[in-house]
Design a protein that fits this description.
alpha+beta; Fructose-1,6-Bisphosphatase, Chain A, domain 1; D-Maltodextrin-Binding Protein, domain 2; 2 domains; five-stranded mixed β-sheet; 8 helices; 40% helix
């Protein structure tokens, strides 16, 4: 696919940040098994990747706004209609533990709508991307959500609450309703890649709450452009503003959403 100038800027930035992260990732296994030491190292890797993204994206489009995980607060741009929404390292815990499943996520928002998205998995060299009205792609291949129409054959993904989060009881109830009627549930620890995998038909659906706009923004347009349905978990809320999402292919969406929403 021949993308727009903005999409090409996003993909170039994602690869540059990914190259930096891969170099740091190789060092993770050499660290002493010290939570503080390893955690500090990963924080530096995260910040370095964000600095690269900021230089690449704002260097090319200095008038755009900026919203990112590590930046303290949003940066307003001279152009109030456009904003970069960036997660330099989605899947930080995986990165910290030497698990090769993490990604760089970049989205472009125009007048409150996500119009372009890139999710790059450097460890596997898989670049998922989409632009409004142009379909979704992974490297050179067109993406389509799965065609499965039976819940019993479907595999879903989600996030599991950790560190005493208060939504654990609700999540366990959702799993208790879903697991008996599906082919499995996966928890791989990177929401951006979960959504990319729904777009690629690897997962049939995904749901999670208590996320941030930068976790979700690129995934939203990639799933939609691959033919999937994306909604907030609570009808009437906003996926990006409230940080909750449910998505799947069209044939099972209604049943899947009914099970999860209870």
């Amino acid at each position: 696919m021949q993308g727009s100038a903005n999409l090409n800027i996003m993909m170039k930035a994602a690869r540059a940040a990914g190259k930096s992260l891969v170099k740091d990732f190789r060092e993770v296994e050499n660290l002493q098994v010290s939570l503080k030491g390893a955690g500090d190292f990963v924080s530096r890797a995260d910040l370095a990747a964000e600095a690269i993204l900021k230089e690449e994206l704002l260097g090319a489009r200095p008038n755009y706004g900026w919203l990112a995980e590590e930046e303290k607060g949003e940066i307003a741009g001279a152009d109030p209609t456009r904003r970069w929404v960036v997660d330099p390292l989605d899947g930080t815990t995986n990165f910290l533990h030497g698990l090769p499943h993490w990604a760089v996520s970049i989205a472009l928002e125009y007048k409150g709508e996500i119009v372009s998205g890139v999710i790059y998995d450097p460890a596997k060299d898989e670049m998922f991307f989409a632009e409004k009205g142009e379909g979704a792609w992974m490297n050179e291949s067109r993406l389509r959500v799965s065609g499965r129409n039976r819940m019993a054959e479907a595999v879903f993904a989600t996030g599991l609450p950790f560190s005493g989060r208060s939504d654990l009881p609700e999540t366990l109830k959702e799993l208790a309703r879903l697991l008996p009627g599906c082919a499995g549930v996966r928890r791989w620890g990177a929401a951006a890649l979960d959504m990319a995998y729904v777009a690629a038909g690897r997962y049939d659906g995904f749901w999670e709450r208590r996320l941030n706009a930068w976790d979700l923004a690129a995934g939203v347009i990639i799933v939609k452009e691959a033919g999937g349905f994306v909604e907030p978990l609570t009808p009437g809320k906003s996926v990006l503003e409230d940080g909750e999402v449910i998505c799947s292919n069209e044939p099972i969406f209604e049943q899947f959403a009914k099970v999860i929403r209870g």
